[in-house]
Amino acid sequence: MSTEIKNYPDAQFVNPQITSDDEIDLRELFSVIWQGKWLIIAITAIFAIGSVVFAIMQPNTYKSEALLAPASEEQGGGLSALAGQFGGLASMAGINLGGGGGVDKTQMAIEVMKSRQFTSQFIQKHNILPDLMAAEKWNMSENRIIYDEELFDFSKNKWVREVKAPFKPEPSMQEAFKVFTKVISVSSAKDTGMVRVSVEHLSPAVAQQWVTWLVEDINKAMKDRDVAEAYRSSDFLNKQIAQTNVADIRSILYKLIEEQAKTIMFAEVRDEYVFKTIDPALVSEEKAGPKRALICVLGTMLGGMLAVMIVLIRYFVKKED
């Protein structure tokens, strides 16, 4: 017991000294920073000037946007009614009428628009690969895109970029898809269901044209899918009619064929099949980027923090020596 009481003060005496050695004196830090103020100012100034130069060298980009509304789906009503009326009888014959809760056509169209296959077909159909991958700046007075000569020779319409295998001078659709996803935006409002499609590009005319093409192409793509499916369904139903003699089943099949004919007719007479354009894309008069002021502020802040770190590291390295 006496030994424990004797050792306790010794431990109390040692611990505060160890703690005081491990503590960082803020006054010492401020003193070190003040002593290295000229180095901090110099490094910060270099970064500030560099960020200003970098921001000025960045070309302007322009955004074009279209507001779309999901088109109504009147053609699905008849098939749903048949499913509710004859679903049990049709299932006995091995026929699925599908009655309820399918995939939302609007959401499916959005996902198709974001897909690799649709993007590849869009780029190839409209021949926009040079505008997407090799555009360097936009000549406002001539409304003309200037291409990077190290990537694309516009006079010869030939790709001249130097790349290592497996890449080729002409960018692949995989490369183009990665770049395309950065310039396109497709979003849906949860409360209203409205869809916004936007494209950002060096040329405002190109951005507007791409948005218009995207809306037209997605409507056509979804229309072609449904029409092709309706034709396949009609062929299948006609085969089933030829194979059955049950009057009730044949009646159901004839009504199903009628619904498929309505689907085809509905698709053929309406161009805005999935999306109706509420506010079409316009050629923007104001730039969307770059945020030059933000680039300058962030560059200056980065330079200041880096300079302070350098001063502190130098001080503590000398202190250890």
What does this entry look like structurally?
The chain is of the alpha+beta class. Among the domains are: 27-55 and 295-320, no CATH class; 60-85 and 102-222 and 272-287, 2-Layer Sandwich (Bacterial polysaccharide co-polymerase-like). It has helices spanning 2-22, 26-35, 37-57, 76-92, 105-114, 116-126, 129-133, 173-183, 204-243, 247-268, 292-320; strands spanning 62-70, 135-139, 144-147, 152-153, 158-159, 184-188, 195-201, 275-279. A hairpin with a 4-residue loop joins strand 4 (152-153) and strand 5 (158-159). The longest helix has 40 residues, at 204-243. The chain crosses the membrane at residues 38-57, 293-317. Residues 22-125 form the Polysaccharide chain length determinant N-terminal domain. Keywords: Cell membrane, Membrane, Transmembrane, Transmembrane helix.
The quaternary structure here is: single chain
CATH class of one domain: Alpha Beta
* N/C terminus separation: 45 Å
CATH fold annotation of one domain: Bacterial polysaccharide co-polymerase-like
In terms of DSSP E residues, the strand content is 5-15%
Look at the helices and sheets and give the structural class.
Answer: alpha+beta
Q: Got a strand count? A: 8
Strand line-up across the major sheet: 6-7-1-8
CA radius of gyration is: 34 Å
* Proportion of helical residues: 55-70%
* Count of individual helical segments: 11
Give helix and strand order, one letter per element, not per position. HHHEHHHHEEEEHEEHHEH
Averaged pLDDT: 83
